[in-house]
Amino acid sequence: MPRTCRSLAAIQPILLLILLPVLKLTLGLESRGSEFVKGKICIGTNGRMSVPSNREHHYRNLRDRYTNCTYVDGNLELTWLQDEHLDLSFLQYIREVTGHVLISHVDVKKIVLPRLQIIRGRTLFKLTIQEREFALMVMLSKMQSLELPALRDILAGSVGMFNNYNLCYVKTIRWDEIITDPAANFTYVYNFSHPERECPTCDSSCQEGCWGPGC
């Protein structure tokens, strides 16, 4: 056997020993987070606030639609989720919504979209009593907090919070730094006769407001 071939044959086991741990780590990371790394496009909905005939089936449809979803093509509509114990952790990987986000008649205590960075507002939500169109609308819900800590841009449309019974913290957010449409704004309305919930204050370290306890 030529000397070069013998040299290559001698170092191959050494190369394998060096590369094997790296390959194992790479494959392990890919298998554990493949959906998030690669991204998954899911189709949004356009049901507005229509009442589902079967609430349990409605929840399962949402869960199946958005599990491991990173990119919502259309609208993200979370409506008529009135069991406060429902698990909405399937929303955790959503990073972008091309349409609007609608949350209505939701009684889950806390909604968290930890990775949502951008709402494009290509289709907007409009109330019949309002001329404005909304990229983010939260209304008639009993949740205590809506946490969108990664949200940086709403490209078109306004933000509306209308008649939510217990919602805290949203008035501390600097929405003018998130809303990029010069014609859009943030609107907060509470028209119930009983007083609003007395909300906890943000932690003193939260200079830019807070989405929930702490920052």
UniProtKB/TrEMBL annotation:
Signal peptide: 1-28
Domain Receptor L-domain intervals: 68-178
Pfam name, any one: Recep_L_domain
Keyword list, A-Z: Receptor, Signal
Entry keyword DNA repair: no
Protein name: Putative epidermal growth factor receptor egfr
Organism name: Panstrongylus lignarius
